[in-house]
Amino acid sequence: MRSTALFKDTCERALSTAAQTLIALVGTDGAGMLDVGLADSLKAAAIAGLLSVVKSYAAIKGPIGGANPSMVNTEQSTDLDLTD
After folding, report:
1. Among 8, 18, 30, 65, which lies 20 to 30 A Cα-Cα from 39?
2. Of 66, 58, 56, which is closest to residue 14 (Cα–Cα)?
3. DSSP tag of 76
4. Minimal CA–CA distance to 58: which of 18, 10, 11?
5. Angle between helices 4-30 and 38-61 (to 10 degrees)
6. What mean pLDDT value characterizes the chain?
7. In whole angstroms, what separates CA 40 from the centre of its chain?
8. First-to-last C-alpha distance (Å) of the chain
9. What tens digit of pLDDT does each residue of 44-84 get?
């Protein structure tokens, strides 16, 4: 994560994951589906955001991903023959 673009992409993913987790937990608490307080919801959202950063780092450094924080290799292949 040496470039600004990778840092921004990783932060965007982590913040959106944390926000989605927080909204889901607060929403289910409000609907009476789970009994989770705001403090516990914030803790879970922080952990989800941290795990998103770890996943992004693993995608960059690992064998599956590419040059971006996605687990899907989005780099263009030079082999355009789809019949093989």
Report:
1. 8
2. 56
3. P
4. 10
5. 150
6. 81
7. 20
8. 35
9. 999 999 999 998 888 887 666 566 666 666 666 555 555 65
